[in-house]
## 1
Amino acid sequence: MFEGGEGSGKSTQARLLAERWGAVLTFQPGATAIGAQLRQILLDPANADLEPRAEALLMAADRAQHVAETIRPALLRGRDVVCDRYIGSSLAYQGHARGLGVAEVAELSRFATENLQPDLVVLLEVSDDEATRRMAAVAPDRMEAAGRDFHQRVRDGYRMLAAHDLDRWVALDGEGPIDEVAERVRAVVEARLR
Ligand code: TMP
């Protein structure tokens, strides 16, 4: 699974890794037909009033649908799955940055996924300045518009999560040319999963 704040380059790296491994590439939120409707609600800037708890539950609902419809069936067919965001996003964004509590949000994701945990979580880290620069290039959705402090807390949350679960998480430098970052990812994945 790939995790990271906005502008961390994880979508590009998830795609490159999936291509190299012949894995199923997918993402959250929004990869199923039902999830796409949830994503619409979650990211629409018009929904500025969405409550943090409602946001957490909608993210969990997307995850439940996605696991049942896409991820578990792929694993049962013997496929590897590379997912652009998973439980770690809810822990960093809703649990830490929104202040709902990492343990509470983890429990919600356990319920949503029937405790389907990733083998490896790759956290791509970029500096605050680089993330801000990359985010400025796109029209912000509701989450991206949440402000500099919120996104700083997201990055802090990710750093804490990676530091507390060294068996599952690995933090990598996400700065530099795409192929150099891809090489860092390749080395880590081969060392940890082969
Ligand atoms: P994306 O832009 O990487 O597709 O992700 C959509 C946004 O949703 C992004 O701002 C991160 C956020 N998000 C959460 O807040 N919690 C979650 O559990 C997930 C999967 C995404």
Note: The chain has a mean pLDDT of 95.
## 2
Amino acid sequence: MDYQKILENIYTEILPYAKEGKQADYIPELAKVNPDQFGMCINTVSGETYSFKQADTRFSIQSISKVFALAMCLSIKGDNLWKKIGKEPSGTAFNSLIQLEIEKGIPRNPFINAGAIVMADILVSHFEDPKTEFLNFVRALADNDTITYNEKTAISERETGYLNAAIANLLKYHGTIENDIETVLHFYFLMCSVEMSCNELSKAFLAFANHSRPFDYASVALTTSQVKRMNAIMQTCGFYDEAGEFAYLVGLPGKSGVGGGIVAIYPMLYSVAVWSPRLNSKGNSVMGIKALELFTTETKESIF
Ligand code: GLU
């Protein structure tokens, strides 16, 4: 398969959408990003890399970090994790309070903000130094020790993060989180602030695509079955309340973030990451979804 040629063709086809949508501006640091950027990278299980445009430019991974947090929490808690967090698609916005209130402080799934705030609490309880443990895990997955947090982004998000603070308070009220709210929120925002490029993200996600290799990175080990189940959750919950649309258009498990990044995997074949900051009304990258839709259509490689 000539992935490089396909990437070039896709780019020409998605250019008409280049000015559609706008970047997330509710996080002050993200509002400063130039929205007119695009990068894409494919890493195959057999070891090839295909990069296109700004595949090496780092951006804020935001909610993509929730996949890393889930891997860590599953390795710590196993199936007991599901006592605190559900695993059904939410059908409401990623920062919705209503559903959390109705469901008495048990987040619908690990990839909405409430779920990730509970995971941040679990990691804060489990590790003496969660900040270092999280980074070590991400660095081990991507095999790159230069990946790091952008503390400025994390702090700027806390300054305006009233909704996430409300979610954390509701969780605390219901007893779903144990630690002090400020500590948990700070760690949650830090995880979101990690910066990675498409190349680094697709490399990191190969670990979720390659079921034949033992999943054992830094302090995190998962069974093959746990990795497969993580893919199932990415498929059903990975794209806010647009997971159905993403399954329909693209047909791969993955995760998006409001920084404009999307990573998706084809089990046993490849991991693909795309980035473009302009988002649609659901919070997913406009160019990113278009590019992936064309990619799986032209390669005829979707899991369905
Ligand atoms: N830090 C962002 C928030 O909590 C993450 C949102 C996202 O990427 O979905 O609002």
Note: The pocket of glutamic acid is lined by residues 62-63, 94-95, 113, 157, 164, 192, 257-258, 283 (CB under 6 Å).
## 3
Amino acid sequence: MSIRHYLQFKDLGADEYAYLLQRAAFIKAKFKAVEKYQPFADPDRTLAMIFEKASTRTRVSFEAGMYQMGGSVVHLTTGDSQLGRAEPIEDSARVISRMVDLVMIRTFEQTKIERFAAHSRVPVINGLTNEFHPCQILADIFTFIEQRGSIQGKVVAWVGDGNNMANTWLQAAEILGFKVHISTPRGYEVNPALAGITGNDCYQVFDSPLDACRGADLVTTDVWTSMGFEAENEVRRAAFKQWCVDEAMMAVAKPQALFMHCLPAHRGEEVSAEVIDGPQSVVWDEAENRMHVQKALMEYLLLGKLA
Ligand code: CP
Ligand code: NVA
């Protein structure tokens, strides 16, 4: 198999997602049964993780997942590597990819991860950029299916910033055949062109967040200020005031609607404590599922289809 990277959600097709989602369920079942599953043990496979931004879930899920599969990890940050001392990203890619089997990167501009991938001998996974967060949306979709069955034809309400998560939801909707209802404050809209969305069948824009949530199967949001945009914090806090997912929004969604948040969350800002800690919230399963879907993704990128 030639090298496959996972830099955006649209890097894989619907058939590949069908495979990955069932594979993630298989791998999760092994984990729950405390059964060893180590396709990366012999020969030993190594994942390099490069973090230019903070992380809890992404680091733990990739690192624990890799060890569970019998492999090992190398953890690099901007501050403790030559990345922080202006070594060109292309040179870093050439060197790192001669020593490991797989690379996960969390960084700023998408162009940075694309430049790395262009000079890498091994698959590169996007662990979050300013523009996209595909591993998170993969976990969210796996979680939805686990709880409610197929996501095809369903409505996902996105309330808040038109950010990396929102862009990735658009790509997923186009590939997997569901619809995103988006409501953002003015000036913080999603950018379908950046996501590469050509038609408008997979999304609908609403001025009012309440209207976006009406009849939704899933209501989801994210922080008002993403990493790298901290200087805008105060301006955003004022602009996003009406975009807090609360019980009134959940009440107009379908009675069986789920609530998701990629975390970390700020109770009382983008979501009320009643919603995130309430009965419709599946945020802890969602976080755990990062590990299961990423194990399936790493297996696929390194070993191809196994079943
Ligand atoms: N959701 C997510 O990516 O979390 P971290 O920033 O903690 O990795
Ligand atoms: N949109 C957020 C997601 C954090 C997991 C950010 O980019 O900071």
Note: Residues 128, 163-165, 222-223, 226-227, 262 surround norvaline (ligand 2) (CB under 6 Å).
